[in-house]
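Tokenise the fold.
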Amino acid sequence: MKNYIYGKNSVLEALADRYPIKKLYLLDSLKNKEIKFSNIAYLKKAELDKLVNGNHQGYVAEIDAFRYDDIGIIKKNNPKIVLILDHIQDPQNFGAILRSCSVFGVSYIIIPKDRSVEVTPTVLKISSGGFKNIKIIKTNSLLEAIKYLKQNGFWIYGSALNKEAKKLSDTSFSFPVGLIVGNEGSGISKTLLKESDEIIYIEQAPQAVQSLNVSNATSIFLYELFKQTK
């Protein structure tokens, strides 16, 4: 199975950053564009539509399968922040989270192997190139991954709204940080909340009728972490 990234911004940013692209597929009307790459095929829109299921804008790039990392890379590189995604399902959310991680300098994400969205062409497109410098670690057990982080000095923060939770605005983070954000429907599992050293939440207006979705909430958490690392 071939792997693709698509969309003008995602493809051009990958080219600019010399991301390893195997072949470039462009809309035939782009032949006069100055795109420097040795292996380009110009296709009709209908042919590009067969390659990817989404708005490619005339730009598709074939890449190698996304390479996931092992959790040992965290001990090796000692990052200040690791983001833990508890069974995120929506590729749009995952892509938006990758983009936020890129903006706020978070380069390590842990996801579970089962019942979780993986890195797909849709995820890569939504990330708008944000995936390039991020290490994504797949684990058989988020619980064991969190225990590993704690053994290596991480303070674990779970994001949830309960009676034990502390306002994000009142939180002074203890680094290195492991931040857990939860599934779109059920949030963080009770097991992972129990393993958290501290539970935090984003304060909302009293008249708010619903909570933020996971990608928006994650952006706010990451921004606060970013401010406190400066």
The longest helix spans residues 214-229.
